[in-house]
């Protein structure tokens, strides 16, 4: 299965099983196995490096099983071929997203002028509220 121009996933790492779909569809749903459950063995995959595998695990979220396989289920279409194609497309998109390394965060701090403006505004607000208080009683 081709992911990008330079990366391809071996078909041996992908296992598909078909089952009956839930939801509306009348008698057709009760007698055909059009839903697909795609399993991608992440442990066997050797084309992804350690950083990509960890990003893929994070992106997979609840679709990642305890034994290290990614489970994608698709039953949105009535035809088996369309469900199969959509499940494979979801897997391809997931792997494609893990290939992009996140940009490193640049530390930033507020400018001196913005800090002075914030303090001046706070002082002004404090003075406004102080003028609303009842005057102190002279005993």
What best-fitting shape do the alpha-carbon axes yield? Answer: elongated
Quick check: average pLDDT? 89
* CA radius of gyration: 28 Å
Q: What's the order of the H and E elements?
A: EHEHEHH
Q: Say how many strands there are.
A: 3
Largest sheet: 3 strands, antiparallel
Helix content: 40-55%
Q: Helix count?
A: 4
Task: Provide the low-confidence segments as ranges.
Answer: none
Indicate the proportion of strand residues.
Answer: 5-15%
Order of strands, main sheet, comes to 1-2-3
Q: What structural category characterises the helix and strand content? A: alpha+beta
Comma- or semicolon-separated keywords:
139 residues; alpha+beta; three-stranded antiparallel sheet; 4 helices; elongated
In short:
The protein has 139 residues and is an alpha+beta fold.
What report would you give on this structure?
This protein has helices spanning 27-31, 50-60, 80-99, 112-132, and strands spanning 14-19, 35-41, 69-74. The termini are far apart. 12% of the residues are buried. It is elongated. Helix 2 (50-60) crosses helix 3 (80-99). With 139 residues, the protein is α+β, with helices and mostly antiparallel strands.
